[in-house]
Amino acid sequence: MSRSSHRSFNARFPLALCLLSVTAGCTTTAGGDHRGNTSSAPTNSDQAGPNGTGPNGTGTGVGGGTGVAAVAMGAGGSGTVIAVPPGAVVGPTMLRRLTNIEYKNTVQSLLSLPNNPTEPLQTDALTRGFDNFAATLTVPPALAKQYWDLSAQEAANAFVVPACAASEMEPQCASAFVGTFGKRAFRRPLSPDEQNAYEALYADQRTRADYAGGIRQVVQTMLQSPYLLYRFELGTAGSDRALTPHEVATQLSYLVTATTPDDALLTAADANALLTPAQIEQQARRLLSQPASKPNLQRFVLSFADTLNLDNLAKDATEYPLFTPELRTQVQAETARFIDAILWEGDGSFSSLLSAPFSFINGKLASFYGVTDPGQGDTLIKTSLNPLERQGLLTQASVLAAHSKPGESGPVMRGKFVRVGLLCQNLPAPPPNVPQVQPPQPGLTTRERFAQHSADPACAGCHTLIDPLGFGLENYDGIGQFRSTESGKPVDASGSVSGTVDIDGPFTGGVELSTKLAVSLEAKQCITEKAYSWAFGRAVLDAERPVVSAIATPLVATGLDLREVMVAIAKADNFRFRSFH
Amino acid sequence: MSRSLIKRRSLLQQLGAAAFLATPVFRSAIVEAQAKVPLRYVAVHLPSGVSMLNRNGDLSVKGSSWDYDHYLGGLKDIQSDVVIFNNLGMPTGNVVSSYTELEGHGGGMRTMFTGDTNQRSGEVPGAGSQYGTINSIDQLLANAFGSNTKFGSLQLGAITQTNSNPEGRRCLFKNGTALEPVEDPNATFARLFPGATTPAASSGTMNADPKATAELVALHDAGKSRLDQLKAEILAIKAIAGTDEQSKLDLHLTSLRELENSLPQVGAGTGPIFQGVTCAPPNIGNQGASNNGNSSDDIQELGPAMLELMYQAINCDLTRIATFQWMSTGANNIFPFLNVNESHHGLEHSWQDDDQLKASYDRIQTWLMLQTSTFIKRLKSTPEGNGSVLDNTVVFVASEMWGGHQHDEFIALVAGKAGGAINPGRTLDAQGRPHNDLLLSLVNMMGLNVTAVGDPKYVTGPLNLG
Questions:
Q1: What is the spatial distance between Cα B461 and Cα B433, in angstroms, rounded to a whole number?
Q2: A54-63, A427-436, B297-306: which range is least confident on average?
Q3: What is the pLDDT of residues B101-112, one digit of tens each?
Q4: B262 touching chain A per CB within 8 A
Q5: CA of B253, closest CA in chain A: separation in Å?
Q6: Which of A69, A114, A351, B362 could be a cystine partner for A240, CB 3.0 to 4.6 Å?
Q7: Residues A171, A172, A173, CA angle at the centre, nearest 5°?
Q8: Which of B9, B220, B230 to mutate to test the interface with A (most CBs of A within 10 A)?
Q9: Nearest to A221 among B2, B230, B240 (CB)
Q10: Is residue B6 within 8 angstroms of chain A, CB to CB?
Q11: Are the C-beta atoms of residues B81 and B425 closer than 8 Å to each other?
């Protein structure tokens, strides 16, 4: 890996600017981010040998790093001993509950359903825009009941029980079914005890139902089994440990396709063929070619754009009568289609997401964006937009509306989104008792009202890092429509970027800001970090920042191909090893 | 919608939702999963004293005379589950110089279950305010724990109306309002098991459509099998998961336990139902439409029927707090079926005078205790967890006085272990301590953390029954 590039991303501390310049009103410490705090990181990277922690850094020797462990492989491993590579940064094991999307995809796959089950599941909480952070994914009573009902309904109505050739063969048929279905459901072969338990469950139900009823009982139970609901990362015995091949398969499958491993992946795990980065890369690329990877990576982009759950986004109907649920649906569809186009019809890069001069417009969106109706009804058609007004994700209505207040634009929300969401810089929480910015009134622009932030020294320390970013987006109102005037005055969309590694300086308008971000190494590093965080369902550890840098480094020279980011994460040593606490 | 849900819904519509409640169900095994075993309090009132003394009133034989060969014969084979309390005071003669304030039978039974003495008179039927704000201990418990079950508490009885003076049946109070017992088996059946067909209307056979019943039982059992498997898996994971994940798994386990409580089952109680026993409306025999009059022969049917209803209410977890009143105290019932044609009240005041009268009196009291014993044995024979329902119950049996309107040095029985709070199989000499101390002990062992019940003047502290 390139340690120098790692350092370069951490050499400057924009947060320190905020903290140093704040007055008593803004002294809250940063929440969670320890960017640049390299002194506290374990020294693994310093001890890394030639193999280091780079994408291909599978060490083979016994190193002096902190995470060396020789562990026996579990299922499928038959005695192979795998040492944690020297210098590898090993993250903690976790019990990750499937997200709702992952669970429904899984059930659909296991039962060979044409569509996702439609039964409701309570909404997964978002953490930093992501719905897959392990800490929040639990099984409270309400959700357990929903799993209970869903599994009952799907097992009874949707699942087709394979026929058993002859009634006298039923126990053997059931046993075989438990083995094959169980392996797919649990993503690993059942242990003998588990096989017996599920055969007994079948036999028990068979006393009160027919053969199919007995099989459905097995299915219904497995669909809500903790072995299905949680992604296990228990690996094999020992302190720091290698994940089992089946655990690697599971992690890879959910990372790329948000569903349970397919047969090819399970077969690879059975054959112990998910050991090397090359083997994993081969599978990752195969999965990226599967249709399921499309909505999954789309969700990743929506997540880092903090626009994952917009279904309840409401606007002040008096101020924005245009923003009906129908329009909201349309702008969401626009963004989704746009992301797919960049990822799968273009170069798949972060840069393109922020710099593409087109979007996808239909009859309902044409007037909203002030372009000619492409004339194909509701179908979204690739359309060039006014290059002075629109360019890429940041200037799309869904993203802008999501980062606005109900009845007005949101320079603070938008500025914060850029700094925290796209540059991964953290800001302190606002101090208590902040004075209210004066409400909208005729004759005063939003920018003028928020000028108080720079005038009041209690606010200025932090808001000079926020507001100048958001002011540059003032050409877009609270629902993302372009405006040249506000309150009878021309909009002042001049802004400035400060405290960054590589894009400091003035800009005017969303297009110029997007262009800056699209080429920013810091932004690309940030998105890589978010992808890593998404892959592991938790915040990035300090000690892992070199790993993230190593993943990003080969990719930031171009536009940061998000598909390649996923492959690189899967190839990293961290993907296969865990520290057990 | 799933086929099974459709089936269940149509089944319910077919039966009527109420009938669902009346369908037998097998208790599920969640005792081990309960953080705290549910406890039950049952009181039984025997009227007009208990004949533990010979007719000379020889106090020296008390205690030793309370063997299981006579009056308590029905309890002989479960005496290891019973504590005999000897020499309780109401309030203790050591504290109160005059018992006149207890006003004989009515005041006695009122005080017996409330521990209160400062209310006066009450002999005059009328507004509840005459009782102030007193609460019987069952109502203290119901107030604290009654929301756990469909019926916070039950007040049942048999032939309690024969005494024209309502004080003869008023021993339970809620904030000064008397709660008189219900004694119509048919009405009680309908209240406890709404929609179920009464045995009277179906020639004594049980109610529900057997096919529908079987389907519900199958639904329950299949669900329980799934939950057992899921719980076992969580526990297996807990054994190998790191400390960080334990709380997550504990929450999951809690969620599964809540699901277990929601399995289709009879009883409508929100509390746990227990293993291995069918809860069902009882066969209460062919009861008449109404019951009145002094012909206490009816009690042969009514008493056991009402006790069986009380048993099933507990068995089905419809309630955990119940009181049963045998007849009204101070009433002139006769008992031809026991060859007793003297009035009960008359015997109370005369049994010490004559061996023949005492024999008659004994026959009544022995018969009443025998029925009560049958009820207690039903609890004893109902499995729960590793023991019986009786192990998690306290049955408090008492009368308001013994011969000659005496309230001191009286006897009480306590059956059951109350979840381990009681170490039974003993005779305990209370040494004249006020019976409020026993009442306090009872509510304490049910989990109600108070330091006094009733009139605090007569509380010296809980008795140790452990």
A1: 9
A2: A54-63
A3: 445 677 778 888
A4: yes
A5: 9
A6: A69
A7: 90
A8: B230
A9: B230
A10: no
A11: yes
| Contact by Cβ (8 Å): A463, A469 | no
- CA A8, CA A3: separation in Å to the nearest integer? 9
How close B26 gets to chain A, by Cα (Å)? 15
Name the 3-class secondary structure at A577.
strand
**Nearest Cα residue to A563 out of A335, A296, A302, A355:** A296
Chain A residues with CB under 8 Å of B259 CB are 141, 144-145, 148
- Cα dist from B220 to A82, A84, B23, B28, B265, whole Å: 47, 49, 12, 9, 7
**C-alpha angle A544-A545-A546 in degrees, rounded to nearest 5:** 90
CB A581 to CB B244 under 8 A? yes
Give the 3-state secondary structure of residue A518: helix
Spell out a b/e string for A415-425, using b for 16 or more CB atoms within 10 Å of the CB, else e: bbbbbbbbbbb
Q: Is residue A199 within 8 Å of residue A174, measured between CB atoms?
A: yes
CB B87 within 8 A of CB B409: yes
Set of chain A residues whose Cβ sits within 8 Å of the Cβ of B229: 197-198, 201, 221, 225
Chain B residue numbers touching A96 (CB-CB < 8 A):
none
Contacts of A230 in chain B (CB under 8 A): 237
Q: Is the pLDDT of residue A259 over 70?
A: yes
B218 touching chain A per CB within 8 A: yes
The per-type count for chain B, helices as H runs and strands as E runs, is 11, 13
Encoding tokens for residue B253? 């386990």
Angle at CA of residue A389, ends A387 and A393, nearest 5°: 90
Q: Where are the alpha helices (DSSP H) in A451-520?
A: 452-455, 457-471, 509-519
Residue B82, beta-bridge partner list:
B415
Among B244, B248, B254, beta carbon nearest to A141: B254
A38 pLDDT above the threshold of 90 = no
Q: How many CB atoms lie within 10 A of CB B359?
A: 15
Does pTM top 0.80 for this prediction? no
Q: What is the ipTM of this complex?
A: 0.85
Q: How far apart are CA A109 and CA A116, in angstroms?
A: 9
- The helix/strand/coil state of B177 is strand
Please answer yes or no on whether A234 and B240 come within 8 Å at the CB atom: yes
Instruction: Find the mean pLDDT for residues B390-396.
Output: 95
Looking at residue A55, what is its pLDDT? 33
For A95, the closest chain B residue by CA position comes to B245
Cβ within 8 Å of residue B21, ≥6 positions away: B193, B194, B195, B196, B266, B267, B268
Beta bridge partners of A384: A358
* Contact present, A473 and A410 (Cβ < 8 Å): no
The DSSP code sequence of A483-541 is: -SEETTEE---EEEE-S-SS--EEEEHHHHHHHHHHH-HHHHHHHHHHHHHHHHTSPPP
Residue of chain B whose Cα is closest to the Cα of A234: B241
The answer to whether the Cβ–Cβ distance between A201 and B218 falls below 8 Å is no
Please count the other Cβ atoms lying within 10 Å of the Cβ belonging to residue B49. Answer: 27
Q: Which tens digits make up the pLDDT trace of B395-408?
A: 999 887 765 566 66
Query: Which chain A residues touch B if contact means CB-CB below 8 Å?
Result: 92-95, 97, 138-141, 143-145, 148-149, 152-153, 156-157, 197-198, 201, 204-205, 208-209, 217, 220-221, 224-227, 230, 234, 580-581
pLDDT in tens, B123-163: 333 333 467 778 999 999 999 988 888 888 999 998 887 76
In a mutational test of the B interface, the residue from A146, A201, A221 whose CB has the highest number of chain B CBs within 10 Å is: A221
Q: Which chain A residues touch B234 with a CB distance below 8 Å?
A: 226
Residue B36: strand, helix, or coil: coil
B435 close to B112: Cβ distance less than 8 angstroms: yes
Looking from the CA of B382 toward its CB, the CA atoms found within 13 Å total 26
Distance CA(B253)–CA(A151), nearest Å, equals: 18
